[in-house]
Amino acid sequence: MNPPNILDQIGSRLAEVAAQSPARDIEKNVRALATSAFARLDLVTREEFDVQRALLERTQRQLAALEQRVAALEATLGAATD
Question: What is the pLDDT along the chain (82 residues), one digit of tens a residue?
Fold first, then answer.
């Protein structure tokens, strides 16, 4: 017998046994349970989170700029009425 052939046969037999073992079924069940649990949660992807964060940062910058404009207009209006 050829030793590499024996090793290949042993490897294939072990793979068959592992595929048929209860541990494999348990792993599949745990994955299905975790997937189901995550599906029920209100989660967003990292990409969606990053988009919303960038939008919030942009909105905050615009708000700060508008607050400065309002303060400047109020100062101008206050100086004109005095």
Answer: 455 677 778 778 877 777 777 777 777 888 888 888 878 888 888 999 999 999 999 999 999 999 999 999 999 998 887 6
Half-sphere exposure of 81 (CA within 13 A, CB side): 6
Listed residue (17, 39, 19, 36) closest to 27, CA to CA: 19
Closest CA to 5 of 13, 75, 36: 13
Q: Distance (Å, rounded) from C-alpha 61 to C-alpha 44?
A: 24
Same domain, 48 and 33: no
Domain that holds residue 22: 1-42
